[in-house]
């Protein structure tokens, strides 16, 4: 009897243990994460809101993505730290590693992922792909994310010059706006860098050396619009086309001609204009002709008196 009770007790303990484990497994949720890789300029969405898709972009097939499940939720605050690690170091520090490759729609789908925080990145030739921003995602439900594509950017160096005859000098305080070709809204610039911040400036002024320098510009065609120039100068060309190339600085020089000063007559004198000069000459000629006519008339009368 005692032996039977002991066996029953052991069986119940075993059931409890199994039930407890199954409860733990069931409590651990599993989710789906879909990464959509779009080759997009990606300047029209705030970063790092990964769940917001670019307005347009080309799906890319064959991009390998890896997900590293972090061991602690506290690690989720250290994106900069994870960005410094190599793939070998990441694998050593991660709890689990998952990977998937994008299909024709640019989608890499990860199924049955446990709850947790994941560090994700694109991999190229066994190394981190530096053209795709790595990211952190807190996975507590199914999610779709759009990693940010890093584009090689270019710079613009504008020089504004005032021309007065043979004299040239840089003009400060000249106001410009920079538009993408066919764009309706000027781009924003903050601390000399193309920015999406709402407090970034749309109107740009030349500095004391006559320059406006802008970095972080996506390669492509732009239009510089001159809004206001320095007093005493005239805007000769209100719009200037500019083409930005990746990893290059494009230099543009725009000239404004000095407005000629009006002629000032010398004090106490009079300088006639061209039309006035012609009128004066005609009056003088007329006076001479009248004088000659009167003299001839007088001479003719004297001759008549003699006869």
Automatic annotation (TrEMBL):
Entry keyword set: Cell wall, Membrane, Peptidoglycan-anchor, Secreted, Signal, Transmembrane, Transmembrane helix
Endpoints of the signal sequence: none
Domain SpaA-like prealbumin fold: 163-258
InterPro entries cross-referenced by the UniProt entry: Ig-like_fold (IPR013783), LPXTG_anchor (IPR019931), SpaA_PFL_dom_1 (IPR041033)
Family: Belongs to the serine-aspartate repeat-containing protein (SDr) family.
Upper lineage: Bacteria, Bacillati, Bacillota, Bacilli, Lactobacillales
TM stretches of this protein: 279-297
A Pfam family the protein falls into: Gram_pos_anchor
UniProt protein name: Cell wall surface anchor family protein, LPXTG motif
Domain Gram-positive cocci surface proteins LPxTG: 272-304
């Amino acid at each position: 009897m005692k032996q039977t009770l002991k066996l029953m007790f052991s069986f119940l303990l075993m059931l409890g243990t199994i039930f407890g484990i199954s409860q733990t497994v069931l409590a651990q949720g599993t989710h789906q994460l879909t990464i959509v890789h779009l080759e997009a300029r990606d300047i029209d969405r705030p970063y790092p809101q990964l769940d917001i898709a670019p307005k347009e972009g080309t799906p890319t097939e064959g991009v390998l993505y890896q997900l590293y499940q972090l061991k602690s939720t506290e690690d989720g605050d250290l994106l900069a730290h994870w960005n410094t690690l190599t793939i070998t170091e990441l694998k050593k520090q991660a709890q689990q590693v998952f990977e998937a490759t994008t299909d024709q729609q640019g989608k890499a789908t990860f199924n049955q992922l446990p709850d947790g925080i994941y560090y994700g990145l694109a991999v190229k030739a066994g190394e981190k792909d530096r053209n795709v921003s790595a990211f952190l995602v807190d996975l507590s439900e199914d999610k779709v994310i759009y990693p940010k594509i890093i584009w090689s950017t270019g710079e613009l160096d504008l020089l504004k010059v005032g021309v007065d005859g043979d004299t040239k000098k840089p003009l400060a305080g000249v106001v410009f706006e920079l538009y993408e070709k066919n764009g309706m809204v000027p781009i924003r610039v903050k601390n000399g860098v193309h920015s999406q911040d709402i407090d970034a400036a749309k109107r740009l002024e030349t500095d004391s050396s006559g320059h406006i320098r802008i970095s972080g510009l996506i390669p492509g065609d732009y239009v510089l619009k001159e809004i206001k120039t320095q007093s005493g100068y005239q805007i000769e060309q209100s719009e200037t086309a500019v083409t930005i190339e990746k990893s290059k600085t494009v230099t543009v020089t725009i000239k404004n001609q000095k407005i000629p000063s009006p002629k000032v007559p010398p004090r106490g004198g009079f300088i006639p204009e061209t039309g006035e000069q012609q009128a004066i000459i005609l009056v003088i000629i007329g006076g001479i002709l009248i004088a000659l006519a009167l003299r001839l008339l007088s001479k003719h009368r004297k001759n008549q008196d003699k006869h």
